[in-house]
Design goal:
Elements (H helix, E strand, L loop, with lengths): L1 H15 L3 H13 L1 H24 L1 H8 L4 H22 L12 H12 L13 H13 L2 H15 L6 H30 L4 H28 L1
């Protein structure tokens, strides 16, 4: 039980950090709906599972790789370029048409609020490729140096040097992952619910903010790994 509580606590800590993943999830769910947001989430979660498995079963090898002098610079540069690319694409493209673009606010609330609270996408406007959304989440998470060092650090601190059985690891990492996944799903659902209450101008502003934020995360990441 102690390991599960520690895992849940770390999962909560990771979930409240504001990073590029948060902007990617919220922007996708607001513009495209719950399913699209979930596909970005699936990309993130698959990436996390891979890192957990690699860190747990090969912690010594991962530690050696991360200690390589140019590792952080290479990963940070690639990850920064990916974030800048996603950010600029988000910034300079238009959001899809919103289902309530021409309705007054009171009609939106009366007609759409019940549908906003379910888990379905009721309009199907301009559905993107689900694979491209999955890949977006996977790449943003995988190429983020913070993800690498988080899972390596957690494994090195909690697992290495202790008598961790495979069952202990399943409970501990399961607590982290389940907490992160559930909170991500809640974020996606809330963003999808808000989507039905937003007008096009508000969605456009949110898209611009998300694009700038992703690009800035990329720039800061590259500056940090290359010059500091």
């Amino acid at each position: 039980m102690d390991l599960l509580i520690k895992g849940i606590f770390l999962g909560l800590t990771l979930s409240i950090l504001v990073g590029p993943i948060v902007f990617a999830l919220l922007q996708t769910a607001i513009e495209r709906g719950f399913r699209a947001g979930m596909m970005v989430g699936f990309g993130v979660w698959v990436s996390d599972i891979l890192y957990i498995m690699i860190a747990y079963f090969g912690v010594s090898y991962i530690a050696a790789i991360t200690e390589y002098e140019g590792f952080e610079a290479i990963l940070g540069t690639v990850g920064g370029l990916v974030l800048i690319g996603f950010g600029l694409s988000t910034l300079f493209t238009k959001p899809p048409p919103m289902p309530n673009a021409h309705k007054p606010a009171e009609d939106i609330i009366d007609e759409q609020l019940p549908e906003a609270l379910d888990f379905d996408d009721d309009d199907g406007i301009n559905r993107p490729s689900y694979f491209s959304l999955w890949l977006k989440g996977f790449l943003i998470n995988t190429l983020n140096p913070f993800t690498v060092f988080f899972w390596t650090g957690v494994t090195g601190t909690m697992v290495a040097g202790q008598d961790f059985t495979n069952q202990d690891a399943l409970v501990f990492f399961g607590g982290i992952f389940a907490t992160v996944m559930l909170i991500d799903i809640l974020k996606i659902w809330l963003a999808k619910a808000v989507r039905h209450l937003l007008k096009p101008n508000a969605v456009l502003i949110l898209r611009r903010v998300s694009g700038v934020a992703l690009a800035l995360f990329g720039v800061v990441l590259m500056v940090r790994v290359l010059w500091f």
